[in-house]
Amino acid sequence: MSETSGRVLPVYMVADESRSMTPVVDELNAGLRSLHDALMREPMAAAKVRFSILGFSTDVIVHSALLDLRVTESLPQLGVRGGTSYGAAFSVLLDRIPADVRALKREGFAVHRPAVFFLSDGQPTDPGDWEATYEKLIDREQTPTAPNIIACGIGEAKAETILKVATRPEFAFVATPGVEVGLAIAEFCAALTKSVIKSGQAIGGGEAELVVERPDNFRMAMDVV
After folding, report:
1. Using alpha carbons only, what angle is made at residue 76 by residues 70 and 80, rounded to the nearest 5 degrees?
2. Which domain holds residue 131?
3. How many separate domains does the chain show?
C-alpha cells in the first residue's frame, strides 16, 4: 500500500517575531532544533505530520511551507523585526491552509483538521482589526479546513487575548508569573514537540484526535483572574 493512501496532520507553528522577542529568539530557534531532532527519532509519528513555520510581526514570513520533517536536514532560523500584527498572521493562515489541504489531498492523503500552535509575547499592535479575519479562519462553514488553534502567551501577552485566539478554552495557556521568558519558550517548544509526536502516534494508531500537551510552567488562561 502506498504511503499516499495514509492520513496526515498539517501543523503550523506561528511564532511572534516582533522586536520584543530579540532577547529570546535564540531560545526559540534552539527549541525548533530540538523538535526536529525529536521527530527524527520518531519516524512513525513524523510520517503522519506535515510541519510549517510562520513568523509574524508587522507582516508574515513563511519560513517553511508544509514539509516532511523526516526528509528535512534542518529547520529555518527565526528572526525579529517590526510589530505584532495578529491580523497578518491569521490572513496568511486563511490563504495557506485551504490551499495546503487541497495539495495534500491531490497527493492522495486523507487530511486531519489542521493544528496551529500560536506563540506571542505581547498584545496585538492591530487591536480590533484582527478579529474579523480570525473569525473567518475558524468558521467551519466559511472555511471548511478551519484549524484548531492552540495559543500560548508569554511576556506581556494577556490571558484574555490568548483566550480569544485559542479555538477552545482548554487550548489557551499563559506562562506562570515570574517565569523567565527564555524558559517559557523552551517549555513551549517541548510541549509542542510532545503534542506533535503524540498526535502523530494517535493518527498512526487509527485515532483522529489532536493531542495537546500543556507546557510546564504555564497555566490555563481561563484560570487567570
Report:
1. 150
2. 3-223
3. 1
